[in-house]
Amino acid sequence: MKNQPDKPTAEAAASRRDDIVFPTLLAWFVPGAGHWVLGMRRKAVAYFVIVVSLFLIGAALGNFTIVSFKHHPYSFLLHACTGAVSIVMTLITNAMENMHNPTRWGDIGITMTWIAGALNVLLIADVLDRANGGPFESEKPKPSLTRRFLRRITGGRS
């Protein structure tokens, strides 16, 4: 009698789901944290710096009062995609409610915060794909163009 592969149990399915859900939620809450959990530390730090810097510079251009559901309900949808950063900035905006006076750079600031939110959506999708064992994980990285060139001219000795 041939050995049949074990059928996935409910515990295995739940564990697999947790392996996907936890990094994805973490990627939403703290930009780059999902990549950190998956072991991509340098990318995680770079993503965190890029998303948070874009968001904070945009908020500063808007006098730290632009992240508001009350004043910018549609913009807030993308702001919310940056997780904890938008939560903290919303609390600051609500505390400064009487000072809702964006600078003349406010529109550029809102646009920068939109870009930060949209970028984090892409990073969340990347974490979801990588945690799910998507095509990026199954591909073997190719050697760099320089390394391939050196192998060709040296006959494979480098």
Q: How would you characterize the overall build of this protein?
A:
With 158 residues, this protein is mainly α. The chain has one domain (13-135). The chain has 8 helices and no strands. The protein has helices at residues 10-29, 33-37, 41-61, 73-79, 84-95, 106-131, 135-138, 145-154. The chain starts with 9 loop residues before the first helix and ends with a helix. The model has no long low-confidence stretch (mean pLDDT 78).
List keywords for this structure.
single chain; 158 residues; mainly alpha; 66% helix; 8 helices
Short description:
This protein is 66% helix and 0% strand.
Helix-residue proportion:
55-70%
Poorly predicted tracts of residues:
none
In angstroms, what separates the terminal alpha carbons? Answer: 51 Å
Q: How many distinct beta strands? A: 0
SSE layout and pairing:
Layout: H1 10-29, H2 33-37, H3 41-61, H4 73-79, H5 84-95, H6 106-131, H7 135-138, H8 145-154
